[in-house]
Amino acid sequence: MFGAPDGRYLVLHNEKTGEDCIIDKVEARHRRLACGYMNFLKMKGYFLKHIILTQGYEQYKPKHINSFMSKMRRYYGKLHYLWTVELQMERLKETGEAVLHWHILLGFPSGTSIGADDIKRIQKYWKFGDMRNSVEIRPVKNASVNYLMKYISKALDCVVMTEYKIRRIGSSLIPGYLRQGWGKVVKAIQHFSSGGVSYSDMNMFYWQNGNAYLMEDCSVGGLTVWLKRWIYRKAKSDWFTVMSYDSLPF
Fold it and tell me: For the whole model, what pTM was predicted?
């Protein structure tokens, strides 16, 4: 069924190759989030641990993950993270209990040591499980956008009771300019560096799909209006939108 111009699915056409493709805007937005997180780790030299937190029984408390992360930051300092939540499907089938567990991709600064004492400490920080493997800590050897998307996709498919306002995906602050492919990030940094702007100052701009702009006020007929002034535009793509759908067009 054809939808409004801002429908979830976009049909794109490549004017050079003649190819068509369909883009899921929800998945694309979360892929940009995953890209931004991986680019941040690359720039800062952080290393990842995969922490899985499992509830002991069915409960919906939005602050559970906040409580755990607050204790982690209090002890380890500035951490960067991306987490997702999903249902334990096997347990749901066996017992009918909709018990949640969280996957946290946690970035530690280079040089941080995670030993046996740290594992015990992290296990104590999680107060909402039971004694049966409620906290699992795994190394991450080959982190990638696809690795993150595997867990993000599961979270998007997770059905939880909306009245409890359980967020399915969360992350630490990721600058807008990092939410694109690494090659485009490098080009953006080079562009601003040539004008004397360091990459740490690039956060003062608003970023939209890899393009940077400022909001400026001007007077029109005695009224103050806000206008976008584009500061940086990435290279033009050969793809353009043909139409938009609310649901898949097949």
Answer: 0.86
